[in-house]
Write a structure and sequence with these properties.
By secondary structure, the protein is mainly alpha-helical. It has six helices and no strands.
Length: 137
């Protein structure tokens, strides 16, 4: 609830400030244009998802990167549809990978997993096996 109030406050302050500078008609057109861009991104999301799945299957991205990329792109498209300058600015920034990764790490508290080398297992215990038949009697 607290984050929503912060978001709402920033949305009102930024929107009133920018709308006061550019005027009502330009604000109206900005809201309409960004809503169409957001709808366009949502309708073409399946193609973005298919490209991400292909990259995941080829091994060029990890599962975490796949989730972050698609989640942030989807959230950015939804924010573009919502009227207001602050949501439009954040929605546009989320369409770029570096800002989406930053949001995922800092705000959503997603942690990067260390990449394991081939043959290493996280839950494996390293042991030494001694064969009793080879011990000197």
């Amino acid at each position: 609830m607290f984050y929503f109030l912060i978001y709402f406050f920033l949305e009102v302050v930024v929107t009133v400030d920018i709308a006061g500078q550019i005027g009502g008609l330009a604000t109206f057109f900005e809201i309409i244009i960004t809503a169409f861009i957001g709808l366009f991104l949502l309708t073409n999301f399946r193609y973005t998802l298919a490209q991400s799945m292909h990259a995941l299957m080829s091994g060029s991205i990890t599962v975490d990167e796949f989730q972050k990329m698609n989640l942030m792109s989807l959230l950015g498209a939804i924010l573009l549809i919502i009227p207001g300058f602050f949501s439009d600015i954040v929605g546009l920034l989320l369409q770029f990978g570096f800002f989406g990764t930053f949001v995922a790490k800092k705000i959503l508290h997603l942690k990067e997993k260390k990449s394991k080398r081939k043959g290493e297992y996280e839950d494996a215990i390293d042991v030494e096996i001694i064969d009793h038949d080879t011990i000197d009697k």
